């Protein structure tokens, strides 16, 4: 059954909105990561629409320093699933979009024009391309979700960035920022609660809420209830996020990202 905007807001925050949310928010508030898909293939026109949405996103200095690879080959999906830490939903997805920070096109343009492209060798350029790829991807995600498809991002591809680059024949100066599984949902999952807006929104300047700790404790309770409703571990959100960022070992290989990026052509000066 379709949820109203007020119900979606309540699911996200645990309390109803104090105003009437804009109708345009319906798709955004209804977001949930989808990891089980029907067998139904994704039409080429659906991918074309997602790409148009992606290319409609803002892009730093109009540089368009991103690309995307649509992967459907089952064996390739299985290999990518393994690189991403054996994520079964990657192997089973009808479609995986791999979003790339891509300076290779501008390098080729520079070489053809016999002009230097040294600006690409800086951390700023890496950051810019990653932001561009993320903005494009999120626009595509919304377009797909608006048409009834489900998505889940796959940051796990950064566990083994060089293996992923080889699998996808990426040129130098090109990096797979994350994947995105796409498919028609085969489950009816729930909307995951977020932190209270008051902890995230600051007015005029950064001010830590005086009751930050108690608001996080209350959120932990909501997340515990959500997790146990989902049949998952009832570890609190705080426990999970602190564990996730505890040390290099908890980064599942991604602590080696910087040298891997350098080998992929990103100098990060
Ligand atoms: C950049 C990024 C990378 C992510 N990587 C993974 C991943 O590798 N595997 C996965 O199952 N979910 C992944 N997720 C999904 C998050 O776990 C999910 O968005 C978060 O738990 C919030 O849940 P929701 O999307 O259902 O609201 C990723 C999300 C983002 C934004």
Descriptive keywords:
single chain, 269 residues, alpha+beta, NADH Oxidase, 4-stranded antiparallel beta sheet, globular, binds flavin mononucleotide
Task: Describe, in plain words, how this protein is organized in 3D.
The chain has 269 residues and is α+β, with helices and mostly antiparallel strands. It has a domain at 32-189: NADH Oxidase (3-Layer(aba) Sandwich). Helices cover 43% and strands 11% of the residues. It is built from 12 helices and 4 strands. A 4-stranded antiparallel beta sheet has the order 1-2-4-3, sandwiched between helices. The longest helix is centred in the middle third of the chain and has 24 residues, at 123-146. The chain is globular. The protein starts with a helix and ends in a 6-residue tail after the last helix. Flavin mononucleotide (FMN) binds at residues 31-33, 35, 84, 87, 152-156, 178, 192.
| Distinct small molecules bound, one entry per kind | flavin mononucleotide
Ranges where pLDDT stays below 50 over 5 or more residues in a row are: none
Largest sheet: 4 strands, antiparallel
Q: CATH H level of one domain: which superfamily?
A: NADH Oxidase
Strand order of the largest sheet: 1-2-4-3
Shape: globular
* Fold-level CATH name of one domain: NADH Oxidase
Mean pLDDT: 96
Write the H/E string, N to C.
HHHEHHEHHEHEHHHH
CATH class term of one domain: Alpha Beta
Secondary structure category: alpha+beta
Proportion of β residues? 5-15%
DSSP E strands, number: 4
DSSP helix count?
A: 12
Percent of residues in helices comes to 40-55%
């Amino acid at each position: 059954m379709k949820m109203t905007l007020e119900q979606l807001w309540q699911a996200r925050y645990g309390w109803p909105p104090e105003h009437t949310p804009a109708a345009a928010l319906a798709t955004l508030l209804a977001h949930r990561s989808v990891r089980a898909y029907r067998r139904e293939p994704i039409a080429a026109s659906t991918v074309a629409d997602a790409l148009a949405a992606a290319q409609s996103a803002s892009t730093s200095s109009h540089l368009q320093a991103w690309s995307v690879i649509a992967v459907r080959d089952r064996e390739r999906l299985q290999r990518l699933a393994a690189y991403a830490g054996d994520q079964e939903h990657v192997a089973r997805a009808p479609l995986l979009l791999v979003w790339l920070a891509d300076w290779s096109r501008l390098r080729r343009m520079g070489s053809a024009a016999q002009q230097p492209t040294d600006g690409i060798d800086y951390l700023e350029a890496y950051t810019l391309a990653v932001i561009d790829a993320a903005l494009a991807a999120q626009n595509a995600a919304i377009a797909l979700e608006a048409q009834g498809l489900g998505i889940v991002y796959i940051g796990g591809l950064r566990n083994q960035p060089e293996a992923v680059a080889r699998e996808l024949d990426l040129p130098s100066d090109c990096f797979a920022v994350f994947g995105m599984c796409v498919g028609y949902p085969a489950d009816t999952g729930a909307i995951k609660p977020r932190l209270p807006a008051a902890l995230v929104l600051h007015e005029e300047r950064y001010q830590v809420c005086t009751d930050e700790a108690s608001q996080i404790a209350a959120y932990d309770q909501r997340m515990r209830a959500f997790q146990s409703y989902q049949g998952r571990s009832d570890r609190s959100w705080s426990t999970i996020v602190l564990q996730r960022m505890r040390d290099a070992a908890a980064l599942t290989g991604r602590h080696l990202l910087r040298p891997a990026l350098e080998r992929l052509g990103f100098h990060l000066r």
